[in-house]
Automatic annotation (TrEMBL):
The lineage of its organism: Bacteria, Pseudomonadati, Bacteroidota, Sphingobacteriia, Sphingobacteriales. One of its GO terms (biological process) is glucose metabolic process. The keyword Iron does not apply. It comes from Mucilaginibacter gilvus. Transmembrane segments: none annotated. This is Lactonase family protein. Residues 1-18 form the signal peptide. Pfam families: Lactonase. GO terms for molecular function: 6-phosphogluconolactonase activity. GO terms for cellular component: cytosol.
Amino acid sequence: MKNFSLIVAILLPVAAFAQKPKPLPKTFDLVVGTYTSGTSKGISVFRFYAETGRLAYLSQIDGVSNPSYLAVSADSKFVYSVNENDQGEVSSFNFDPKMGTLKFINKQSTLGGSPCYVSVDKANKSLFVANYSGGNIAVLPLNEDGSIGQAVQTIKDDGPFGPNKERQEKAHVHTAVLSPDEKYVFYTDLGTDKLHITRYKAGKSSPLTGVKPAFVAITPGGGPRHIDFSADKKHLYLIQEMGSAVTMFDYNNGKLTQKQSVTLLRDGFTGATGAADIHVSPNGLFLYASNRGDANDISVFSINQETGELTFVDRRATNGKAPRNFVIDPTGTFLIVANQNSDSVYVYRLDKTTGKMLGIVYKIDIGNPVCLKFAPAN
């Protein structure tokens, strides 16, 4: 009995040590996508220091047309970028995390104009591209060397369209996101006010297949844009570009049930708007949503950990115009926002207890920044 007790005493610390989570890196690489019609020439890479919030320039790859949205492979070996132009293309790059440099591999047609969003599965088998003016979603296979194959599938909704005749004259797909278990792909259509749901199976000739129901309807004229999931994967949050609101759904194995909608606008606000990006904090306690137009701010909401419902916490100006995109660093300590029309990227410190955006800790000047993605630095 004494021998058994001794063995338990020895093993317990070992077991406790084995279960200790791996610490997060102290440095990351921030990859910045831009519109290249102004002073920017392509994609830039900065080293981000998670202890201080500072950014240091590493490299830029020129000659990439309008890399307005990026995706980083799960192993950080590759970066994929849309080329948001009329012909519609998507490009692939080797990523060197030690040097923070990109090397072009190849590009392919997205079979639709103005691609504005790209995502990649964890196995690096498929790319999913949202073509805004083309009004469709495209699926492209990936090879082991990171190169992109020709598109194998496109899906388009032929209507009916939303009530805004200027913005909703046809389908405008704005995002394509995998479910946490990667069994489904969700894509928003600003033109039809729908969030579409498809089943995903890698390696098939047509990787996406229909499900029932095939979509959930969003507020008419709301213009669904981006989405994110709660930390427990039980809720989905959708930002309405034209409605300047966030809609919350309960989520269960491909099924969505709408539960709540909250405004991003302060009382009495009558200016122009254009809600853009949305993210849940790494600790799962808060949701952040950006708004452009005359608002140029980020709203903060707390997340009820049982119901997923949102409660307004704070609203903070972004010190620039058109905060099209933002990210929260993997440690949850800083929020970094890209102000497209004022050529600036700001780093804000976050209060992890209240969720509020605190002081500005760093700023960089860069032409037309519109997408920010993190990759672990080597």
